[in-house]
Amino acid sequence: MPKSLRIQLFLQALVCLALIVAGNRVLSWYVARVYVAHLVEQNMVSVLRQCQGLSADGRRLRACAADATADSLLEGLSLHLQLCPGSFSTDRVSALCAQLQPAALKWHALAAEDASGPQQSEAMLDGQAWLAFRSQDGAESILLKKSRRDDFVKNMWDLRNRVFLYVIPLLVLAMGFLAWFLIRQLMRPLDQLRDTMARLSSSNLDQPIEISQPHREFVALIASMEELRARLHASFQQSQRFSADASHELRTPLTILRGHVEQAINESPTGSDGQVRLRIMEEEVGRLVDITEKLLLLSRADARAISLELTQLDFSDFLTELVSDAAQFETGLRISSEVEAGIFWHCDALLIRQLVFNLYTNAVNYNIDQGWIHFKATQSEGWLLLSLENPTQHFSPELSQKAFDRFYRGSASRSRRMSDLGQGQGLGLSLCREITHLHGGTLTLSATDQLHVSAQLRVPLRLPLQA
User: CATH topology for 310-466?
Assistant: First the structure.
């Protein structure tokens, strides 16, 4: 079973969107770390500049540091600063500050400052990583545990994750809707083209393909399909003309030939070999005449050149007579019927008689020895329902789809049964379908079980235009 392009595109779009979300998280984590590091540098520079000279008064210095970082996201970090030097410092802090000598650390200017401005360094003090910042003159320094900065990033990221958990359902729905919307927009021109091509038939090949506002990417495809439609139309017209012309031209010589053969039969000695051969020739000429008549009628139907001569047909009476005559003629088959009385059909009586007779002949040809044929005709809400059912040994699964194709004759292994009108050319059911369509109905062929075939006809008793 072929895969669905819509489903594949939808899944691929979801995967792409998921990769975008995952990539966004990785990039966001990196940007958050860089941003917080830069923000720490800015805050420390602000503290060093605004609180210069206050290192001896720890209380004032911390208050100043809090004011310097009051408008920053890192306001709470001021509580974790260690100041060097400071009279309030503990022995541990004093020991840390003692290590902040120019010779002990590698100081470098901050990214946003020039070489003469505040400087930064990193040091391992007391077994922990510290960030150190000192003023321009190096007289005052600030220490901050690196883990404090990293904890701040981690806490901020944890908060983002908690919010993200609530956003996930909405995000999934948004991603699904976006993928569906994109697929729908992509497939819309293809759907329009598919529907337009599906509506094309032998009766409307002359109508150009029209797609409303096609995208530029589909213009070449639509132009190719339009070119194909034009070629098909020209080919179909040529085929119609050839079939009609050939059938028309063959009618006269075949009729003359059959007349001469009949005359030769009458003039030949009765029962002679010559008369037998002439009768065989007459049968084959009759078959050719029947083929040309059917081809001519089919060509006219394709060209919509058949005008119906509508009359009121007593279909119940016609079918009853047909069943009675068939029961006498086909002695090897059991003919039965269920015909509802009083069915009157406003139709072309000549074509309908030909339709029913073709269906009957098809049932005879596809029957079994000592088989049967059952007719059933009913009317319901202005519709005629006719079915012909018969047993067969030659039904194949493709018969239901191909039975109405021209020159299709089913199983080639079955013996051909010839009737007086030369059946067996594979045109009878095709002609039946065309006659049914002309009367606004449908004709189907199906297998009721493995050995039974049923032809069903459903047509309005009055044509819509004649109602």
Answer: Heat Shock Protein 90 (3.30.565)
Per-residue tokens: 360: 């009957």
Q: Which has the closest alpha carbon to 69: 43, 41, 45, 37?
A: 43
Helical H runs in 268-314?
Answer: 273-302
Strand partners, 212: none
CB 367 within 8 A of CB 448: no
What are the phi and psi torsion angles at 312 (to 5°)?
-90, 115
Nearest to 39 by CA among 97, 86, 78, 82: 78
Domain locations along the chain? 5-155, 216-302, 310-466
Per residue in 41-87, pLDDT (tens digit) is 777 777 777 776 665 566 676 677 777 766 666 666 666 666 776 54
Which architecture does CATH list for 216-302?
Answer: Orthogonal Bundle (1.10)
Closest CA to 18 of 166, 165, 174, 163: 174
Does residue 75 contact residue 46 with C-beta atoms inside 8 Å?
no
pLDDT of residue 317: 93
pLDDT score for 56: 57
| Structure token pair of residue 50 | 């605004």
What is the edge-to-edge ordering of all strands in the sheet holding 108-109? 82-84, 141-145, 128-134, 119-125, 108-109
- The pTM of the full predicted model, rounded to 2 decimals, is 0.48
Q: What are phi and psi of 13, to 5 degrees?
A: -65, -40
DSSP assigned state of 329: H
The per-residue pLDDT for range 75-107, each reduced to its tens digit, is 666 666 667 765 445 556 666 666 665 556 677
Distance of CA 221 to the CA centre of its chain: 17
